[in-house]
Amino acid sequence: MHRSSRVSATGLSSRGLLLAVPALLALAVSAHAAVVMQEKTVSSGFGGFGNGTSERTIVIAGDRSRTDELSTYTGRFKTIAGGGKPRASAEITRLDREVFWYLDPAKKQYTELTFAQLREQVAKGMADAQSEMAKPEARKPDDVVTTFKVDVKRTGKKETINGFAAEQFIVTLTATSKDKSSGQEVGSYTMTMDQWLSTAVPGQAEVQAYYKQMAAKLGMDPQLQRAAGAAMAMYGDAMKEIAAKMKDMKGYPVRSALTIQLGAVLTPEQQAELEKKQAAEQQAAAEEKKKKDAERDAAARNDAARDAAHGDVTGAVGGFLGRRLAKAAEKKANANAQANAGTPGGPSITVVTDLVSVTTGPTTASFDVPSDFKKVERK
Fold first, then answer.
1. CA 218, CA 13: separation in Å to the nearest integer?
2. Dihedrals phi, psi of 12, to nearest 5 degrees
3. DSSP-assigned states of every residue in 7-64
4. What is the rounded CA–CA span in Å between residue 197 and residue 195?
5. Residues contacting 177, CB < 8 A, separation 6+
6. Helix 221-235 crosses helix 115-134 at what angle (to 10 degrees)?
7. Residue 224, CB half-sphere, CA atoms under 13 Å: how many?
8. What is the pTM of this model?
9. pLDDT grade, residue 377 (50/70/90)?
10. pLDDT value of position 276
11. Residues 300 and 323 sit within 8 Å (Cβ to Cβ)
12. Which residue stretches of the chain are H helix?
């Protein structure tokens, strides 16, 4: 529910009106009540590749909205993604003109996407997907079957988050894929949304009304229903279960933490069983290692004694120290392995969005493309 829009005048025949109306509209907008939201998003994970920060100012005024964003990528490839420097962008949505404008302030350029073009793109995407599904090879039974487990918790925790009285809800979706023939697990992932919702956020009614009006303007309802049908086919009853369990979740998210983790996320019971198994394996490995170390130490002492007996003091000392150094290196490697072990699951990424502030009242934000910006074609 984050994007913006605003008003202007077109289609008037009189040159005088064309010059006067925008100024009148600007005055009207300045006096028009608006909702201004400040948000901050921080992402991290996948070994540092997903690290970044973005700060947004979202202004919603009637049938117009604008989002100004400053994003900074700090991940491992930051040198080829802006060099770690902040990048500014803006998006203007005009429901009255049924258009999105995407602004690049650094280049003083903008692109345009009309609602009609968006509807056409969505329709084409769905038609292409249905065409692919209709192909004979697409109808072959999968070798892998995926099951989903849903958990929606109203934790009962209530705190003041970013100045708003909020309540915590946690939604977890776990997907497990198994080979049909062997029953062997071939992959899994878990998505967790930790949300703090508040009913005390100013302007909630205006924001909801705006996005409801946008949905009606886009005429997306039937298409979204078809998309939901496709999602239902993929996720089975999980989507129904999530919707049913989320019906009591009311309010605006003042903090949302989405975590996607590849690999299994164990229950406390599974974790305890895993740790018990790992402890037994480590004990057996330690006993075996102790036995082999004793044999190697005895061999090293014998070699050192033989070298010393033949007058090769350097060889004796070198052999003794070499064994000592090898044992120290092995001990350090084992310590590192243990530090990195015991954490089930694969790499993960976390995206945390905070609603920093909300104000309502008159706005002077511009909902028109600056006159010195050049229009370029969308890629």
1. 28
2. -95, 140
3. --------HHHHHHHHHHHHHHHHHSEEEEEEEEEEEEEGGGTT-EEEEEEEEEETTE
4. 6
5. 144, 145, 146, 185, 186, 187, 188
6. 30
7. 6
8. 0.65
9. very high
10. 77
11. yes
12. 15-31, 115-134, 204-218, 221-235, 238-245, 268-309, 313-340
107 pLDDT higher than 50: yes
Question: Which of 17-38 are b and which e, b meaning 16 or more Cβ less than 10 Å from the residue's Cβ?
Answer: eeeeeeeebbeebeebebbbbe
Pairing of strands 109-114, 374-375: parallel
Question: Distance between CA atoms of 82 and 63, rounded to whole angstroms?
Answer: 34
Query: Looking at 32-36, 87-91, 293-297, 372-376, which range is the least confident one?
Result: 293-297
- The SS3 call for residue 371 is coil
Coil, strand or helix: which one is 369? coil
**Tokens read off for 318:** 């070198």
- The first and second tokens of residue 208, run together, are 């909801």
Phi, psi of 273 (to 5 degrees): -65, -40
Mean pLDDT value across the chain = 76
70: buried, middle or exposed (CB in 10 Å: 19+, 13-18, 0-12)? middle
CA-nearest of 5, 14, 35 to 115 is 5
Q: Residues 156-208: pLDDT tens digits?
A: 999 999 999 999 999 888 888 888 777 787 788 888 999 999 999 999 989 98
Which of helix, strand or coil describes residue 299?
helix
Q: Sheet containing 164-179: which strands, arranged edge to edge?
A: 144-161, 164-179, 185-198, 252-262, 348-362, 33-45, 52-61, 64-73, 87-94, 99-104, 109-114, 374-375
- Which residue type occupies 314? T
Q: How far apart are the first and last CA of the chain?
A: 25
Cβ contact 322:237 at 8 Å: no
State the Cα–Cα distance between residues 61 and 57, nearest whole angstrom. Answer: 13
